[in-house]
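Data card: per-record layout.
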Amino acid sequence: MTVTIEKPNRKNPTRYTRAPHKRSNREKFAWLFMRGSGVLLVVLIFGHLYFNLLTGEGIHQIDWGFVAGKLSSPFWQVWDVLMLWLALLHGANGMRTVVNDYVERQGVAKGLRIAIFATAGVLIILGTWVVFGFDPCSYPDAGSFAEICRA
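The structure for this 151-residue chain is written out next.
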């Protein structure tokens, strides 16, 4: 019994425009970044959940004053910004991989990649601005910070 496999019916075969002698390690570094950032994100996220939900009064302690207290500490600012940056870059790189795998038209793929990384860049800038620019004394009802802000 002989089995023949028919040639795939594909109208637009993928064309590789890169010359075969040019080698780039971009995909290797993207792959390594995904693994490294994934491991670091697990540590950062579970640390975030532990210190916010399992210490003190648990979820009942989270209010404006709790968040203001955390965002006034340089340690938690760096922790939150690192978590924000890694999560956005990890997600954007994952979406880039999906676009590379499933979008056949090069122009559409390039436009989607630009949109993905532009969105991630804007969110990184806004998130970093919020974390480092937060001033609990600039709010009229500063809660537990009212005594500190008046001094």
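Known properties of this structure: Helices lie at 26-54, 64-71, 74-102, 106-133, 146-150. The longest helix spans residues 26-54.

See the next section for split statistics.
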